[in-house]
Batch of 2 targets.
Target 1
Amino acid sequence: MGDWDEFVGEEWVRPNVALAPRTTYKVGGPARWLATPRNLDDLGLVGRAVVEAGVPVVVLGRGSNVVVADDGFDGVVVCLAEGFGQVRWEGTRAVAGAAVALPRLARAAVERGRLGLEFFVGIPGSVGGAVHQNAGCHGRETKDVLVSASVWDLRQGVMTERSVEDLELSYRHSNLADHEVVVDASFQTTPGDPGEGERLMREITRWRREHQPGGTLNAGSVFKNPPGDAAGRIIDAAGLKGLRRGRVYVSERHANFFVAEPGATATEIWELVREVARRVEDRTGIVLEPEIRFVGAFEEER
Ligand SMILES: Cc1cc2nc3c(=O)[nH]c(=O)nc-3n(C[C@H](O)[C@H](O)[C@H](O)COP(=O)(O)OP(=O)(O)OC[C@H]3O[C@@H](n4cnc5c(N)ncnc54)[C@H](O)[C@@H]3O)c2cc1C
């Protein structure tokens, strides 16, 4: 892997690291290299090496919206270390490192009497992942509260400040490329009663417990909702609850959640996703688009 091999000596870059434990599905193979940069200098080194060695790169947050291929990822996976896990306040704005867990950000804001980020309590991702996916729930999306994000371009070695418009955030979408790493993000909050924020967070948590298959291996909603409809309703109406491929099945509780049993493979998830999409299209003409991201090589690309 050319120049990349020079990084073996760095303790924050390791070869052949299992990715399954870093994802909520707990499936898939290793990263050829896992880089856990602690600061911007480390990110600069990763970027230069990636460019010189010409290897593919992908960023991993808390792995709550990805499926890693059984053969793993034949390139560099960048996973920001704790150095990117701080929250600081600038007036009513929370500036959160990209590695900060969204529920932690929601609670920290409410404790401070800063409201507006409560919806993040139900999303088990990171700030970086939320910006990349424009994560949202309960009527709110990241773009409603995001002021801007600092983005490090691994190829150019430069940082830019991107607004919601620059990022082209829309339903579960941004224009960020794989070599662009969200480093931190600034969120607007409103001063308010912490009790009110706590009530809303409790309500969101209760709703999720009732409507989602908690305590199982999944990555949240598998498909995006088509305009004016819900993917879960469509899959349910097509009679596909309980459909399975190996050790992966469509949840009985929420048809847009596909649950993996211990020992499941990424291929089984991939096959179930394709099968459900195929049957829904056959029956309704609706083409469902995956919300979860497949990282590495899956059948069509082999
Ligand atoms: C039980 C459960 C419930 C969920 N509920 C919701 C919900 O209500 N609403 C919702 O929107 N999502 C939901 N999700 C999905 C997921 O939590 C979100 O998409 C979240 O934003 C992903 O963040 P992550 O850090 O886990 O990203 P990952 O899964 O690690 O990565 C997702 C994508 O973001 C990119 N990425 C991650 N970090 C960075 C970074 N620092 N810079 C650039 N790119 C980055 C990755 O390359 C990848 O393309 C749910 C997931 C689960 C398991």
Note: DSSP finds eight helices and 18 strands in the chain.
Target 2
Amino acid sequence: MSTEELKQVDKEGMLALYDISQVINSIQEPEELFNRVMDLVISTTKAERGLLMIKEQPSGELAVKVARNFQRRPIENPDEISQTILSQVMESGEGTLTSDAKTDPRFSGSESVMLYNILSIICVPLKKQDQTIGLIYVDSRTTRNVFTERDKVFLAAFANMAAISIENARLQARLRQENLILKEEISRQYRFENIVGQSTKFLAALSVVEKVLESNVPVLVQGESGTGKELVAKAIHYNGPRKEKNFVAQYCGALPETLLESELFGYKKGAFTGAAANKMGLFEMADGGTFFLDEIGDISPAIQAKLLRVLQDGEMRRVGDTQSIKVDVRVISATNRDLIQEVKSGRFREDLFYRLNVVTINLPSLRERQSDIPLLCRHFLQTAPAAKSKGIDQIENKALAVLMDYSWPGNIRELENVISYAVVMAKGQTIRLEDLPDQIKTARNGSATVVSGQSMREMEKNLIIATLKSCQGNRRQTAEQLGISLRTLQYKLKELKHDDAVSQA
Ligand SMILES: Nc1ncnc2c1ncn2[C@@H]1O[C@H](COP(=O)(O)OP(=O)(O)OP(=O)(O)O)[C@@H](O)[C@H]1O
Ligand SMILES: [Mg+2]
């Protein structure tokens, strides 16, 4: 639309446009918006009939979204409208006005103009940037000269605004739909049948999970790395009454205090250098839902105090703010440390510990639930990305025996990774011993299997090397598994090096 044309929209027209923009911007449902736009068009132009058409995605076909007359009744035969005009506007992207269509040479080819006695017409495009996404059409079959040039300009300006609102509403509707689908998909992922395990220890932990689903009590999940702490936290959320709201997770280990604080609680504009605008904290985002605080044992005293307040009063304050915000959040925390020890040594507040730890869920390590290994393997074979396309659904007994024998310092996550690896390596439809990663095979080869004729020294050496490998070189973990102190392990390693040097000499 040119500025010359725009000048024709008088003050009254401008005010009407302003009012209309207020109305249509507040509507988020596409269907409702189409109807409202049509009402406004008909009432401001005094047209007899009106029509709103939108190009459908992805077909690109022009579809009628609303077609009605001034009595707000649907038009019975919307096809009794000049197709010539519609396609002209769609192709040119320009609006058109005619006050006597029957004598207008531009429409001399239009059957419907003649047939249905259409006299006055305005048709304007709905445009998103340069694209014409649809059109608005109004006509009158009873009167010539119903519309003026001013009406056309007015309608074109109106259509520009309406197009933006329509695009927004359609985008929002699509996002809402997608969001719903994604949420359902996530919920499905955390259904109980996807949490695998039959061993007594694991079932005991799972029975606690089931008991806390419906309540809001804070839960502390304890377990070694990779034992399923986050999985359990999500299962509690997605199987409980809060599932429609957000599940928010924050890793609290090894983060600078100020960073963690502004992540959790947000900040007020100007709270510190760099706080250019207000920022919402994760606790606010989790309102109505669940907050998973991972590695809770690492948080600083200042954050411990703020967290206590959330748990005690359901209130928090953004950094730099004096006002409190009420939040309704279920807190699930996790740690692989001994939190009681942290309390005893004064690093963790006792009052917070009791608030967080109303219910404890202790997840067993994979070593303690060896009997679940075959089940878990089968589960991961079903979920491993490449397994389906390669048709792999078996593990040979020899390989399974090695997997059952291994010490799994990385627990279920490590097992999941090993199966994914083996699936990639496997040639046939069965996973064989040679498809397993080296660290698993060698752990077995050099493991504590007793071979007669071996010296005590030799056996100890093999045991230490195998354990070191299974702990990926982590000496502290190795010592723990061997039941010796770190110092003893270091001493023994020194001795082994010495032995090697002697035997090589
Ligand atoms: N019982 C189970 N059944 C099926 N999959 C499981 C089970 N437990 C854990 N997993 C899977 O193992 C992986 C590790 O689990 P998760 O991330 O929950 O462990 P974590 O205890 O939070 O580990 P970390 O301490 O390292 O953060 C995930 O992919 C999870 O889906
Ligand atoms: Mg985790």
Note: The two ends are 93 Å apart (CA to CA).
